[in-house]
Amino acid sequence: MSFLVIEGLTKAFGSHTAVAGLDLVVERGEFMALLGPSGCGKTTTLQMIAGFVAPDRGAIALEGQDLTRVKPNRRGLGLVFQSYALFPHMTAAGNVAFGLEMQRINRAERERRVAEMLALVGLGAFADRFPRQLSGGQQQRVALARALAIRPRVLLLDEPLSNLDAKLREEMQIELRHILRGLGTTSILVTHDQAEAMALSDRISVMNAGRIEQVGTPTNVYEHPATPFVAGFLGKTNLIEVDVLADGAGSAAVIGDARWLLAARVAPGKASATIRPEKIGFVLDGADAGLAGTVRARVPGRALALPGRHAGRRPHCHSPERRRHGAGRGGAGAAHLAGRRHDHRTDGMMRAYSFTCRHPEAPARSAGLEGWKLAPAAILRGSLRSRLRMTASVWRVP
After folding, report:
1. What average pLDDT is seen over the chain?
2. How far apart are the first and last CA of the chain?
């Protein structure tokens, strides 16, 4: 029997449907992340699991027990809030002990568990401090210790690291994962931070407009997105239109003058393909494999390392646009495939500059990239004509 089962969960606020027929299964000891943009229904889903919001339809079963009519304090769940929600008039030990007092745990056992939880989160020496005397990271640990002290059947985490600075957030991700792994606590994390979901979870549920678009391991969801939304939301990608052909040998995606066999059979017709930037490789013009095209790129913090006798030399660059408008900073890229421009961002900023880059000894028709590598150095600015070798996921256009 599955540990936590959610079936057909639906919630509407007036004319707006926040969660629409959501189905989800979480196994015992699993760390599940609900990942999605603001307004996708992930926090509403968490609140319905906790019992703070009543669903309009659907069922929530924990170890076979229907929770939909069970009061929040009777569900045996722990919750870590985004704002920590610590009692300012209580010490760290008092905050951790609060849930145990509500459960009427005897004093000796209560003190033992408080000491155990504070030691677990590395705050054994801070038991007598008040929240105002603790840093943001320490307050977050107290909130976690309080939630774990009651030994919850499921721990619910509502963006618990969003109030921390970037460096501390990364450190707490590692620590949180280590603690929950050690305890074997079943956990559900709500977040819009892709890196956080990828780092912490065993599986990710990507939500959009009140529905789950895909559930899978972080690697599977990233490498094999089920929909264009998942591909675009999780990481950077190039989304392009392709034609799918099918014959006795299987299905193939046709992009421009190139054809790629697909691992699975796909119905013929128009489709969309996603190509991750790191899946694009370069071969010389005239090679059998690949797609003819032009790549325009400015790669921050990278330079082209030339092979053989060209080692250590810089390619020559020319740009009419640069003379008129200046080179600027930042970076952007565009792959020109079959006469269409498909943009991808490299650092969140787009530029319209067009560069032509050639080594003085390279053939005038092309800047061949066979054996060339990107290495940490100065910025490379250039338009490199070559052929593209790509790995793509393909979906049928509805």
Report:
1. 75
2. 36
Distance, in Å, from the CA atom of 71 to the CA atom of 10, rounded to the nearest integer, reads: 19
Who's near 195: CB < 8 A, 6+ residues apart? none
Distance CA 47, CA 72 (A): 10
Distance, in Å, from the CA atom of 180 to the CA atom of 29, rounded to the nearest integer, reads 9
Angle formed by the axes of helices 92-102 and 136-149, nearest 10° = 20
**Which residue would you say has higher pLDDT here, 331 or 298?**
298
Q: 1 burial class (0-12, 13-18, 19+ CB within 10 angstroms)? A: exposed
- Residue 321 · residue 354 · CB < 8 Å: yes
Task: Look at residue 306 in the predicted model and tell me its pLDDT.
Answer: 35
**Rounded-to-integer distance, Cα 13 and Cα 323, Å:** 55
How far apart (Å, rounded) are the C-alpha atoms in residues 95 and 115? Answer: 12
The predicted model scores a pTM of 0.70
Per the CB < 8 A criterion, the answer to whether 176 and 189 are in contact is: no
pLDDT tens figures, 259-307: 878 877 888 888 888 888 777 776 665 555 566 666 665 445 433 333 3
User: What would the pLDDT profile of 14-69 be if each residue is shown by its tens digit?
Assistant: 999 999 999 999 999 999 999 999 999 999 999 999 999 999 999 999 999 999 98
Compute CA distances 281 → 145, 339, 340, 354, 371, whole Å. Answer: 48, 20, 19, 21, 11
Q: Answer whether 137's CB lies under 8 Å from 168's CB.
A: yes
Can you tell me the mean pLDDT for 213-236? 91
Q: Buried (b) or exposed (e) across 294-331, using 16+ Cβ within 10 A?
A: bbbbbbeebbbbbeeebeeeebeeebeeeeeeeeeeeb
Cα distance between residue 182 and residue 117, in whole Å: 13
